[in-house]
Structure formats: structure tokens, C-alpha cells
Amino acid sequence: MAANVKDYYEVLGVKRGASEDEIKKAYRKLARKFHPDLNPGDKTAEEQFKQVQQAYDVLSNPEDRKLYDQYGENWRAVKSGAGAPPPGWEQAQRSTRAGGSRPEGGFDFSDFDFGGFRSAGDEGFDIFEEIFSRAGRGRGARRGRGRDVEAELELSLEEAHRGGRRTLQMQATELCPECNGSGVKDGKTCDTCGGAGEVSRPKTIEVNIPAGVRDGSTIRLAGQGGIGSNGSEPGDLYLHIRLRPHPLFRVNGDDLEVELSIAPSEAVLGAKVEAPTIDGKVELTVPPGTNTGQRLRLRGQGLKKRKGGRGDEYVRMKIVVPKEVSAEERRLYEELQRISRFDPRRNA
């Protein structure tokens, strides 16, 4: 008999009637848990990731999922063989699962090995082949565009601002080289792909990141998604951008905000100081009488916009007092306190 293939619903931990969103949510959770990049050198995790990927590839495709629900692990042989089994198959399957007898006029395939077609020299091959070819005549091979794949791409704020090329290492699905996508080899379920007809392989992708991408935006890479069946076109890859928190800047749309520390004397008298921007330091004029929390705008020093132009940068002032002072500084502060008529709590 064919090798045992683990149920795809069990692999993802969902019920057979699970919705598309439930399947996608379960896949993302398990893919993050077992992803090779997060488990370097862990062969067990790598194998589990492959199983999760195979299960999702099938259950996320409505046509493939329907076939899988009807024919179980033999769905790919049905799809890539010569169409569907003859009339009476589904009724016979339901009767068999329920413990009943084979319905009148139906076909009982319980004694056949559906792991793959038998070789031409095996007894009964002609009957087996005739049953399937007769049922599939005139229908043509099924064709289906490859599924679209979603992934997250984490960028620094500088990378998103400037754009550029980025090399990604990903796990991609491709036709199994051992069975050429049929799911069977030498009359048995293919050991390499477990009957799925697809395997997960590391893949290097060059991504052109446009300047000005934002957190939550999406980059589409045509033809970089799942493989298509029967030579049809592959799906697309959608990269959802996530920006890492920046140690200095806070993003507000196209604008940036940053906090800048100034001395009490600079706040009172005004000063020219250096302020950080996404492209380096620039000179900023602090006006006399600046208070903590006051914002100064640097026009055009924010993030690049996709359609041209830039946002602004807002520099928030923070007056910082020294924790230690020299004897001369203390004398001057005491003199200032004696002669100053300023009362910061007057309007409190």
C-alpha cells in the first residue's frame, strides 16, 4: 500500500470545515514557529515547516482543497492523471467511510493502491488505467495559476526612506524533482514530497525597494509566488513592509519627530545647535526663550514621498540641567538666582 501521508488539516491544526481565514491564521502561526531562519540547524523544525507549507499550499487553493476533501491523499493523482474517477466514486467513498456496502452501480476501489499508477508489467494495470482514462476523456488536463504568496519584509527606517536593492533568502515551493510533480514514483507515493508533488527549497530573490515605502505598504513581485499546475503561470509574491522602531526618530505619516536636549543657557539666550536628521546632522537655530516641549520645524527633512517631495522633521526641545557643576558655575547660578525676578510658578 502507499506510504501514509499525514492529514493536511491535522498538520495545520484546523477542522475540515475551517474557513480560509482560519487556515491562513493557522499557517502563519506555524510557519513563524518552524521557519528555518528562526531554527537554524534544526532538521525537525525544517521538516515540520515543509509539512506546514505543503498543507497550506493545498488547502489555500480552492480547487486543490476540493479535490483533497474528495479524494484524500490521492487528489494529486486524480488531478494530474486523466481527470476524475468514474461516476459512483464519491458515493462509494461515503458509503465505505460510513461502514456500508458498495452502492449498486458504483465502483469499489478499496483494494487498489492509490499511491500511484502501477507499472505496465503489473497485473491489473490495464484495468486500472482504463478506469481513470475513461472517466477523464474529453475533459483535458486541469490548469491552475499558482497561488499568491504573502510574506513580511522588515526594513530599517533608513532603508525605507532611501530605497535600494535587497537580497532575500526565502523558502519557496517548486515541483518535486523526483516525481516531476505527480506525487508518485515507481508506483508508490513519492518519498521526497510525501505525495504533494511539491517541495520547499531555499530561494534567493532580488527585491527593488522603492524609496519612500511606509510601514504596512505592499510590494508585489510578479511570478515569484507558488508554482502553477500543468505548466500554467506562477502566482505572485506580496511583501508586506514592516519598519523596525528607530532609536531616535518617531514616524508620523511623512513627517519625523525627534527630541533634542539643550542647556538652560541655550534655551534662555538662544543658540545654533546640531540636530539629527534621517540624512545626517544639520544646523538648527534655537530662538531665545525656548521651553521644554516646544517644537521647531525643519522643512523638507522628513521622509521621501513615493510621488516626490518630502515631509518635515519636528524637533522637540528638552532642557537638561547639569547634575554636577564647578565652583565657578555654582557661584554664577547663585548670583543669577539672587538678581533674577523670573518666577516659573507665577501662573501655575
Describe, in plain words, how this protein is organized in 3D.
The chain is of the alpha+beta class. 28% of the residues lie in helices and 24% in strands. The chain is built from 10 helices and 13 strands. The protein has helices at 8-12, 20-34, 43-59, 62-71, 75-80, 89-97, 125-136, 157-162, 264-269, 327-339; strands at 149-155, 164-175, 184-185, 188-189, 198-209, 218-221, 237-243, 250-252, 255-262, 271-277, 280-286, 295-298, 313-319. The strands form 5 sheets. The protein has a 4-stranded mixed sheet. A 3-stranded mixed sheet has the order 1-7-6. The protein has a two-stranded antiparallel sheet with strand order 2-5. Strand 3 and strand 4 (188-189) form a beta hairpin. Helix 2 (20-34) packs antiparallel against helix 3. The termini are far apart. Mean pLDDT is 78; it is low at 86-143.
